[in-house]
Amino acid sequence: MNALLPIITLLLAAAAAGLAVWAMAERARAEKAVLEARMLREQAASGAETLKAQAALSANAVAEALVQRATETFAAQDRLVQAKLEAQLKPVAETLEKFQLQVTAAEKARAEEAGGLKNQIAQLLLASTATQEEARKLSAALRRGAGVQGRWGEQMLRNVLEMAGLKAKVDFHEQVSMDGGAQRPDVVVRLPGGGAFVIDAKCSLGAFLEAQDALDDAAREAGYLRHAQSVRAHMVSLASKAYWEQFDQSPDFVVMFVPGDAFLAAAVDRLPDLYTQGMDRRVIMVTPSSLFALCKAVVYGWRVEEQNLNAKEIVGLGRELYKRIAAMAAHAQAMGKGLETAVGRYNQFVGSLETQVHTQARRFEDLKVDHEGREIPELTPIETAVRPLAKLAPVLTLVETAPTSAP
Predict the structure, then answer these.
(1) How far, in Å, are 19, 151, 186, 224, 242 from residue 200 at the CA level?
(2) Can you tell me whether residue 273 is helix, strand or coil?
(3) Per residue in 103-140, pLDDT tens?
């Protein structure tokens, strides 16, 4: 028993050593497995990260490619849309450009017209100011007395006569002495046929100007009434002179010239029967407008008188021309008869030449006489007759019945 104990102890020790070695081997395998597992996990993690990185790179590349392709596609579509839009908007752009040009031209024309209108308005204002100044000067001059008013009336009368077409010292005469110098009318107007009528321009305007300067209605009305009475008094004085009796051929009236429509209208408003009173006294009151019409009638009369004188001269010229045409027609008739005689003589000559001369001359051809290629031409008679002067037959008859000496 004791002998087996060491063996059992050795076996136990060997078994323990084997167990220890096995345990150590198992432990080493376990550690190796753990290490391999750890390495596998690390490799798996590293591979996953690599795959992730590669996948991320691939995705980025694909995304960039897609984005680039999409960008190019969108850019091409944008260019196409832009081209279509430009093509569609080109007529609109051209229309807008034309409209802009028209607007610019219209604005330029408007500016020029506005500038021209401003200039015209400025000139109108200057003319109005000058007219007012001249009117003020005229009004001041007319207030100086009857002499200035008379000269102004005479100048107005002369202007109206000349505007109507009458010529001074031809159709009218100024300041003509009559009745041995006792009468001196302002103007004597000549009429066709040797007649004449007188125009007087001495009309006082002092009361009218005083009425214009009056400060109240009563004073103004009183001034106009004095003006009407002054016009009536001048009309009565003018009628008493009886200018029409100084001419052998003259209408039985005298013309009283008032140098403004307002002057005569103010007088007629206060004395409504002023025109009737003047006509009863053979005084015709006129203003520049009515005198212009009267003088135009005189000008027309002179024109008719001149046409009548021209008509007489035309009749004389017509008679002389008719005589000369008659003489020329006689010469033409004589020339026609001479031509007819010449044509008859020519035809007789041709007949005699053909019947008596050519027949004998052609016998030389039958005898083979050398005539050097010269043949005798045939002469034909003239059948056209001279055209008679049918339309001048009355003239020729007149010449035959009452002959006149040819010029």
Answers:
(1) 177, 12, 5, 22, 12
(2) coil
(3) 888 888 888 877 777 888 888 888 877 776 665 655 55
| Residue 286 β-bridge partners | 257
What is the distance between the alpha carbons of residues 151 and 141, in angstroms, rounded to a whole number?
11
For 52-97, the DSSP string reads HHHHHHHHHHHHHHHHHHHHHHHHHHHHHHHHHHHHHHHHHHHHHH
**Residue whose structure tokens are 């039958």:** 366
| Amino acid at the residue 8 | I
Q: What whole-number distance in Å separates Cα of residue 407 and Cα of residue 399?
A: 14
CA distance 253 to 200: 11
**Cβ within 8 Å of residue 96, ≥6 positions away:** none
Domain-by-domain residue ranges, the chain?
Answer: 87-122, 146-286, 312-401
Q: Which of 326, 317, 320 minimizes the C-alpha distance to 391? A: 326
Q: Is 144 in contact with 275 (CB distance < 8 Å)?
A: no
Which of 294, 242, 291, 231 lies closest to 266, judged by CA? 231
Give pLDDT tens digits for 194-243: 888 888 887 777 788 778 777 888 888 888 888 888 889 988 988 888 88
